[in-house]
Amino acid sequence: MLRKATEMLGYNISAQDGEIGHVEDFYFDTNEVGETAWTVRYMVVDTGFWIFGRKVLIAPDALGTPDWDHKLMPVAMTKEQIKDSPEMQAGQPVTREYERNLRSYYGWPIYWGVPPTNPAPGTMSPMTGSPTTGAGYAHDAPVTTSVETRSQFGPGREEVPDEVAIAMRKAEGSSRQIHSVDKLNGFSILAQDGEIGGVSDVFIDDANWEIRYLLVDTGTWLPGRAVLIAPQWIEQLNLDDSTVKVAMTQEQIENSPEYDPAGGVDRDYEGALYNYYHYRTYW
């Protein structure tokens, strides 16, 4: 199901032995713009007075089954584990080094540096740590390398395909940062021939935590109407001037299937939208 990020803000996060705070933001990784849907990598949790003045990052890997009715997200760790986790410096970007330390501490899988090819069914995915069904990376007879890992249960080694291990090591030195959904709000959306409005929210797929659409407030250009833009249709994300350039013209966007806020986003509407823009669907 697709859910607005703003509707999940304030959800309580419950550890195995009590609540730790509430969702304040989401951090996402764009991968390559135009290649894949953006993916939420962390929930930013405001711990309130429990750990005063500190925020913690929780990856979707740690989530149990959310209680959507009661706005509660359970996580598979204790309060003590969370309190002793690597501390995020206030006001500083989330670096690959910090992510590596955090994921090693909790035993969460590394998600970067994974080749975008197809796996043999049953191969262990380095993104989820679970057997794949045919999407992720491909091997007829995989050659593996032992890569050192660490979790709360101690150090260990994991066998991963050679190309995955090489890509992981290369990505280790990457300075690319993840981005805040909250800070994305307000970014100007630029069509091929002019501005169409600004980002007001994002729709997140709660099955895999991928960002499926940017919700765009068209302001005075199309008064009273919002439009949806999928990350696959984005040509450029410019963090310096807070703009997102898309591959369509203003006229194309104006004549696109109209989004009904009351009706939400269902598969029929998504199909009509993708068909209109002549893009392959993600499902």
Can you describe this structure?
- The protein has 283 residues and is of the alpha+beta class.
- The chain is 18% helix and 32% strand.
- Strand 12 (210-217) and strand 13 (226-229) form a beta hairpin.
- The longest helix has 11 residues, at 96-106.
- The radius of gyration is 20 Å and the shape is elongated.
- Mean pLDDT is 81; it is low at 116-147, 149-155 and 166-175.
Relevant terms:
elongated, 13-stranded mixed beta sheet, alpha+beta, 18% helix, two-stranded antiparallel ribbon
Quickly give the structural class.
alpha+beta
Largest β sheet strand count, sense and barrel closure:
13 strands, mixed
Calculate the terminal CA-CA distance, rounded to whole Å: 12 Å
Number of strands: 15
Averaging pLDDT over every residue, what do you get? 81
How much helix is in the residues?
A: 10-25%
Total helical segments: 7
Q: What is the C-alpha radius of gyration, as a whole number of Å?
A: 20 Å
How much of the residues is beta strand, in percent? 25-35%
